[in-house]
Amino acid sequence: MTFTCYRNRYLELLSKYQSQSIKTEAENDEALAIVQKLINKNHRSQEENNLYELLIFLIEKFESEYYSLEKATSPHSMLLFLIEEKQVTFKDLVKIFGSSYILSEVLKGKREITYSQANLLGNFFQVHPNLFIT
Predict the structure, then answer these.
(1) CA 20, CA 28: separation in Å to the nearest integer?
(2) Which residues contact 131 (CB under 8 A, 6 or more apart)?
(3) Is 74 helix (H, G, I), strand (E, B) or coil?
(4) Which of 85, 90, 109, 113 has its CA 20 to 30 A from that of 57?
(5) Where are the alpha helices (DSSP H) in the chain?
(6) Is the dihedral of CA 95, 103, 89, 76 positive or negative?
(7) How far does the chain reach from its first CA to its final CA, in angstroms?
(8) Residues ≥6 apart with Cβ < 8 Å to 49
(9) Distances (CA, A) of 56 to 8, 78, 116, 117, 132
């Protein structure tokens, strides 16, 4: 009888949270919110612990695939991402590239980032310079 009760409670939790493969950032955010609630809950049931472990597995799987560096599209897109993320101005980057013309060409994707520029960008953004090398 305990097994049936346990199984039914677990199935109830699974159906409530519709656990399935995480495919989008929105679904990942929802799963993270559920995990956060479970972390903060005192005295979780065995079913809630199982759900917690399942969600952690699904979140880790999604994040390792979705956020992997291998999927970074290009040095150009990485630069644009970091500019937006860190709210960097054009003026800040001119110092790195030496001229507004060169910077403009790089931002438009018309010019590759050189190794010396990649090193300067790595220092500026505090990331590995290889992110800016093709």
Answers:
(1) 11
(2) 69, 72, 75, 78, 118, 122
(3) coil
(4) 85
(5) 2-17, 25-40, 46-66, 75-86, 90-97, 100-107, 115-125
(6) negative
(7) 61
(8) none
(9) 21, 28, 40, 39, 32
- pLDDT higher for 79 or 25? 79
Distance CA 102, CA 110 (A): 9
Token couple for 90: 């054009």
Q: How far apart are CA 55 and CA 13, in angstroms?
A: 12
Asked if 29 and 62 count as a contact pair (C-beta separation under 8 A), the reply is no
Q: How would you class 83 by CB atoms within 10 Å of its CB: exposed for 0-12, middle for 13-18, buried for 19 or more? A: middle
Quick one: tokens of 127? 């990331």
Q: How far apart are CA 66 and CA 102, in angstroms?
A: 32
Enter the tokens of residue 84.
């937006």
d(CA 127, CA 78) in angstroms, rounded, equals: 11
19, 51 Cβ separation under 8 angstroms: yes
Tell me what pLDDT residue 117 has. 95
